[in-house]
């Protein structure tokens, strides 16, 4: 994905917010003013803020399919072996008990969105906001 208009970047802002918050925990210095402007849109200047209900783009189009026909290896948790496979656009495996970001659960609560790879058992990972001056 990428190269979408700012108005359609609400879902991407969730990922960016998570990445920057994790980077801050790891010691990266973040410009709070720019973070609040670009990620959170606290200045209300038309920049899209994080939005779990934002437009979902289909990224697997045209040339991206080339990567889906190249054989890859993956670890099979059931057999304990590495195996070769060709993805053909199949959803990636998410193991039982994985951490799923709260934004996925928010999106599921608001719409008919149901990720194909979502395991039956998972842990919800809340967003921990530690950059903004509005942090609690």
The description of the largest β-sheet is: 2 strands, antiparallel
Shape: globular
- Count the strands? 4
| Intertermini distance | 32 Å
Low-confidence stretches: none
Percent in helix: 25-40%
SSE series: HHHEEEHE
Helix and strand content put the structural class at: alpha+beta
Number of helices: 4
Mean pLDDT: 88
| Strand order in the sheet with the most strands | 1-2
Strand proportion, as a percent range, falls in: 5-15%
Structure, described:
The protein is an alpha+beta fold and 136 residues long. It has a domain at 60-90. The protein has four helices and four strands; from the N terminus they run αααβββαβ. It has helices at residues 10-25, 32-38, 64-68, 102-110; strands at 72-76, 81-85, 98-101, 122-125. The protein has a two-stranded antiparallel ribbon. A hairpin with a 4-residue loop joins strand 1 and strand 2. The radius of gyration is 18 Å and the shape is globular. The protein starts with 9 loop residues before the first helix and ends in an 11-residue tail after the last strand. The model has no long low-confidence stretch (mean pLDDT 88).
Label this structure with key terms:
alpha+beta, two-stranded parallel sheet
Element layout with pairings:
Elements: H1 10-25, H2 32-38, H3 64-68, E1 72-76, E2 81-85, E3 98-101, H4 102-110, E4 122-125
Parallel strand pairs: 3-4
Antiparallel strand pairs: 1-2
